[in-house]
Amino acid sequence: MNNSLTADEKAHLLIFARVPALGLVKTRLAAGVGEAAALAIYQELLGITRTAVLESGVATTVWLAGTAGSEPTETEAREWAGIPVRCQAAGDLGQRMTAAFAAAFAAGAGRVAIIGTDCPGLRESHLTQAFALLDAHEVVLGPATDGGYYLLGMRQPQPELFLNKQWSTASVLADTVADAGRLGCQVALLPALHDVDTAADLATWRAAQA
Among 130, 146, 148, which Cα is nearest to 138's? Predict the structure, then answer.
């Protein structure tokens, strides 16, 4: 466990995830491999994400989509091994991320980063590096090879970074970097990682494991 992050009460990690339920996760992947296989792969990706987060030692909140009510049930929260779990806000992805960042900063965080659960290459070192880079940069991005990003970190709320984005398209990273530049933010980039969203992505991942 990274003790420097454990002791850093100003660093906070947000995880955007879904409740793992048949037919409700990895729908683009399910179109190629079936719903049962997609759910199993999603569970595998959740495990990879949990391991990286727990090894980093950074304070974390999970923000869930697909919950049965306005508060996560014990069953829905069980996946996360005691990490605090909340329900995502209403709205599109940008609005939901804006709300999660605002909550973390309002609670006293000084450096906040958000990740999803789609990157099998995510490791503790990426999280540690992201928070270290936020010491000298206003914004940190982890590029995904599909043109999006797997991590976004910032030192203060920048809601403009979530406006006017075509989510789940190849322009998201470039548009976010451009917006950060217009805001006068110094941007640092992490190593690029591969997302698993489709059957082709899955094949690429499995081939790399062979």
Answer: 130
